[in-house]
Amino acid sequence: MTTNILLVGVGGQGTILMSKVLTAGLAQMGYDIKMSEIHGMSQRGGTVITQIRFGDKVYAPNIGEKEADVIVSFEKVEALRALPFLKNGGTMVTDEHEIYSMPVLTGKAEYPSNALVALAEAVENLAIIPARAKALELGNVRVQNICLLGALVKVLKLKGVDWKGLLASFVPEKALAINQQAFDAGYAMI
Amino acid sequence: MVKEIMSGNEAIARGAWEAGCSFAAAYPGTPSTEIIENLSVIKEVSSRWANNEKTALDMAIGASIGGLRSLAAMKHVGLNVAADPLCAVGYTGVNAGLVVVTADDPGCHSSQNEQDNRLYALLAKLALVEPSDSQECKDFIKAAFEISERFDIPVLFRVTTRICHSKGMVELEQPGEIPVKPYQQNRQKYCMLPAMARVRHAFREESLKELEEYANTCALNRIEWAHDRKLGIVTSGISYQYAKEVFGDSASILKLGLTNPMPKALLREFCSAVDNIYVIEEGEPFIENAIKSLGFACTGKEKIPILGELNAKIVRDALVGQEAQAGYSIDLQAPPRPPVLCAGCPHRGFFFTLKKNKKHIVAMGDIGCYSLGVGEPFGGFDISTCMGAGISGTIGLAKALEMQGDPRKVLGMVGDSTFFHSGLTSLIDVIHANANVIACVLDNSITAMTGHQVNAGSSKDVQGNEVAAIDLVAIIRALGVPNERLRVVDPLDLKAVQEAFTAAVAVKGPFVIVTKRPCALIKEVARANAGKHCQVDPDKCVGCKACTLIACPAMAFKDNKALVADPASCTACGLCMQMCKFDAISRVGE
């Protein structure tokens, strides 16, 4: 059995660090892992997608449409964009945060006001969580990713890993406590 | 055995180190950039960013002939730039092993085309090795150095974006001694004058026959037999993973890792033993044509797309048939989110002014962050092909417009790294031809698009050594550009940029504009700007939207007022302040 996870967001939101911590934990659990993140032009404020697959033996590093068991979105519209990748019965976790793209800012496109309502109507397993708001409340918007990681670990029921201890290898010491708080907060949101 | 999760690029660097590679050169280009970045931290390996891919390969060839195992890395289109030395070294062969990594980009994730560089192995008569995951990136690079030395042949090591930027578990081994082969003069082998080249060509044809024998039996090419032999799949590279994902153990698979010369005997053995043959490969029908030339019928590009990147679903739909599978869709369009110039990007001031002057100008672009200037709202240029062409292409375009009586002046642009890459020779052409063009160098002090690599304008090299920074303005002056035809301006000073454009449009003949301002994302620059941002006074803002014309992603317009919606990404560059006639925007946090 292979589990497919998609992390989607906007360049600069920290999807890469989130996937690093997640894969380190999965490696501790003894899984074979493939992870794919295409970077380059997409860093410049564009959509970013990280794909993670784990199981006994994983071949392909990427995920096709209708194949994702869980999608974690750092932004509402990105959840909408990634929806075709969700497997039937899969789980969508999305932050309620909005980031306006250039076509929206220049009035060439409209940001849908009812994205969450539409998602809620379509997807049975949907969790809308205020990860970014929580990160701001904790004092650093950048821990949004670890808050979402906490939520994802809960969704996937990944047990037997000291996730909060693992964070120490990925964030500077002075930021460890706030990252651990963000993880707990995200875990409690599911 | 220590296992680590590594990207393909990290594994290539690790493998090169374990193989005793001690010289590496490259020009940055997605998806190949991290190979040198990872090698540069290993002190035993002399690593450098070259000015372009040709000079990178030239250096590596020199090191190989001198006796060091050497590696050159580049993106697929970079190999076009390096094609000249590539085809020459195909004849000379090597002393110590030489591996040329080509990182192809099916799907054009960040490239101008999807060219399949396996074809270069045929053209330049090289060994071709194709790994299919991170573990093989490490293992095969070691095999590649062995093959290179054993058969006196450079190895083209072909990876793709999905290999370079995917991670998987890799078993680490310890590097051995760094081998150094004595340099030995051998003019018959290394001086490619006609008389010697004819002899070396004959040598190469013979050595390829020997290498083919090796390819038929070596571990890089292997057959995974299934219980029954109805279906046989021939595949290489990342496509192997998709084949396994779709067919598992139900089909026999010939997995090729050494694909030039093609192991014909092995192909015959496999194709004769199965009833039906599928060839699964991205890009060109490289393996498929080889199989067909041996007289076997097979299914390849008639079903597997030649366009774009593959995945397991595409392979499944093409060869097994589409499964009707439930999924989710909602009737709501997600607005597009194209990549844009970052908040604080110095190029923004240039493109805003260029747009204002568009009546008088036809512009050509180039490859770099400023290629993002093509998008809305700037529409920064009409033509963009490859590196350096943003300058040299203007010469022909200017002549064509002149002959049509079109009074507009042609403008071309390159960045600082692109200037050193091939813009310099292009600019020499402009000056020497006395072409009626405006040549612009958008100098942001770094190779930004690929993630901030140093270049010839930097005072440090990739390994942190102090080096002589090349002064590109001094070079431009040395080409004979007089002061009245040269402007060096701060692109965030809109008045100064406009003055430069006005002067450039007014005169006939070459005019050079250099915009100088470091990329806002350079660590030191970002640190200096930390905490600073602009702020809109809603009482003074009249909602005229002038500030939105600079298309800054940190700004938004809500409830008829402008606002700095993302102060964390705002660098207080001040462009919006220059746009505001009502003094409504100010800097804070200084």
Report the strand count of chain B: 22
CATH superfamily of chain A: Pyruvate-ferredoxin oxidoreductase, PFOR, domain III
Structural class of chain B: alpha/beta
Q: What string gives the helices and strands of chain A in order? A: EHEEEHEHHEHHHH
Question: How many separate helices of chain B?
Answer: 21
Radius of gyration of chain A: 16 Å
Strand order of the largest sheet of chain B: 3-2-4-5-7-6-12
Q: Could you estimate the helical fraction of the residues of chain B in percent? A: 25-40%
Number of domains of chain B: 4
Strand percentage of chain A lies at 15-25%
CATH architecture of the largest domain in chain B: 3-Layer(aba) Sandwich
Distance between the termini of chain A: 24 Å
Give the CATH level 1 class of the largest domain in chain B. Answer: Alpha Beta
| Number of separate domains of chain A | 1
Classify the secondary structure makeup of chain A into a structural class. Answer: alpha/beta
- Termini separation of chain B comes to 53 Å
Shape of chain B: globular
Task: Provide a brief overview of the structure.
Chain A is built from 8 helices and 6 strands, in the order E-H-E-E-E-H-E-H-H-E-H-H-H-H. With 190 residues, chain A is of the alpha/beta class.
Report on the structure:
The complex is a heterodimer of chains A (190) and B (590). Helix content of chain A is 37%, strand content 24%. Chain A has a single domain, classed as Pyruvate-ferredoxin Oxidoreductase, domain 3, CATH 3.40.920. Chain A has a 6-stranded mixed β-sheet with strand order 2-3-1-4-5-6, sandwiched between helices. Chain A is built from 8 helices and 6 strands, in the order βαβββαβααβαααα. Chain A is an alpha/beta fold. The longest helix of chain A has 14 residues. In chain A, helix 1 packs parallel to helix 6, helix 5 runs antiparallel to helix 8 and helix 6 packs across helix 8. Chain A is globular and about 45 Å long. The model of chain A has no long low-confidence stretch (mean pLDDT 94). Chain B has 4 domains: 206 residues, Rossmann fold (3-Layer(aba) Sandwich), CATH 3.40.50.970; 98 residues, Rossmann fold (3-Layer(aba) Sandwich), CATH 3.40.50; 177 residues, Thiamin diphosphate (ThDP)-binding fold, Pyr/PP domains (Rossmann fold), CATH 3.40.50.970; 58 residues, 2-Layer Sandwich (Alpha-Beta Plaits). The radius of gyration of chain B is 27 Å and the shape is globular. Chain B contains 21 helices and 22 strands. Chain B starts with a strand and ends with a strand. In chain B, strand 6, helix 7 and strand 7 form a beta-alpha-beta unit. The longest helix of chain B is centred in the middle third of the chain and has 24 residues. Chain B is of the alpha/beta class. In chain B, helix 11 crosses helix 14. Chains A and B meet through helix 1, strand 2, helix 2, strand 5 and helix 3 of A and strand 8, helix 11, helix 14 and strand 20 of B. Strand 2 of chain A pairs antiparallel with strand 8 of chain B, so a sheet runs across the interface.
